[in-house]
Amino acid sequence: MAIRPILTAPDPRLKAVSKSVDSVDAATRRLIDDMVESMYEADGIGLAAVQVGVAQRIIVMDLDQKDGKQNPRAFINPLITWRSEEVARFEEGCLSVPEIWEEVERSANIKAEFLDREGHKQLLEADGLLATCLQHEMDHLEGVLFIDHLSKLKRSIALRKLQKAKRLKETG
Ligand code: GNR
Ligand code: NI
Questions:
Q1: Which residue in 35, 61, 70, 92 has the most C-beta neighbors within 10 A?
Q2: Residue 65 has what pLDDT?
Q3: So what's the pLDDT on residue 68?
């Protein structure tokens, strides 16, 4: 397993539309393992492959990490098959938009289908943090970041904050 560096905005590679995985094989599972390790290393609860520069429709997630217990899940070629009209607002962050936290409105409940790491089709009904996180990750597969859901003003403030933090990091 290997930790892969996570791209940060405004890296143009984050805008790629990810391609479907056509066979879930050993290479897919190796990538998933690297993604899981990279997600834990970065203290994230989810990660899309495009965030490590691989534009494939693969997401990993672990929403119940506590007491060092890990329960990683993989979602390959995920598809939202139903969304509620009801919306929910959650404060979101993103490993590709470090240190920015803003509320985003998304469907409160969703139904989804996806392939697991064995390539088996799975169905899922989600609400709460799982619904939020899955929609956040699926946005990444379309090249969309959570700040793209903010007003123009809030987005430009966020991007400026990000650029400033990057500059500070470079100059030390
Ligand atoms: O680690 C993460 N936390 C988070 C919190 C609220 C809503 C979404 C997320 S996902 C984020 C990791 C990430 O950037 N995934 O793409
Ligand atoms: Ni993200």
A1: 35
A2: 82
A3: 78
pLDDT at 147: 98
- As for ligand 1, residues whose beta carbon falls within 6 Å of it are 44-48, 51, 90, 92-96, 132-133, 136-137, 140
Whole-number Å distance, alpha carbon 32 to ligand 2 midpoint, is: 16
Question: What's the pLDDT tens digit per position in 118-168?
Answer: 999 999 999 999 999 999 999 999 999 999 999 999 999 999 999 998 888
Pick the CATH number of 12-171 from 3.40.50.280, 3.20.20.140, 1.10.3430.10, 3.90.45.10: 3.90.45.10
- Residue 41's alpha-carbon distances to 27, 35, 95, in angstroms, are 21, 10, 11
Helix (H) or strand (E) holding 170: helix 152-171
CB atoms within 5 A of ion ligand 2 belong to 94
CA distance 170 to 166: 6
